[in-house]
Amino acid sequence: VTKVRKVIDEVWEEVVREGLPADQVAAVLHQMEISKKHQSTSFGMHLGVGLLGAWLHGAEPAKYLEFNTHLERFQTLEEAGGHIQDLVSRNFLDNPHRLTV
């Protein structure tokens, strides 16, 4: 268990130090955009399930629908530099709350 945690922490430290390749970040964002905008016969059901999770955790359901706004904000922050590194550092490396199962 200790070895696995050490390897995971090393990966997070590498992400904070070096960041992620810009082309991979762009590809993931593009894939997310396509998947959110793709309408299928179960589009409404998927939308409702996604809204439910946000709603149950205290978010405004209507804000969840503003996907383009969130995507543009993320892109702006990432273009300014270091956004992903800050998120990884704050939420994984500097976060004292860990659970090992």
Task: Give an overview in words.
The chain is mainly alpha-helical and 101 residues long. The chain has helices at 2-18, 22-37, 43-56, 61-64, 67-80, 83-93. The chain is globular. The model has no long low-confidence stretch (mean pLDDT 88).
Instruction: List the secondary-structure elements in sequence, H or E.
Output: HHHHHH
Q: What best-fitting shape do the alpha-carbon axes yield?
A: globular
Spatial gap, N to C terminus? 9 Å
Q: Strand percentage, roughly?
A: under 5%
Secondary-structure class: mainly alpha
Q: Over the alpha carbons, how many angstroms does the gyration radius reach? A: 17 Å
Tell me the number of strands: 0
- What characterizes the major β-sheet? none
**Average residue-wise pLDDT:** 88
Provide the fold topology.
Layout: H1 2-18, H2 22-37, H3 43-56, H4 61-64, H5 67-80, H6 83-93
Helix pairs in contact: 1-6
What is the structure about, briefly put?
This protein has 101 residues and is mainly alpha-helical. The chain has helices at residues 2-18, 22-37, 43-56, 61-64, 67-80, 83-93.
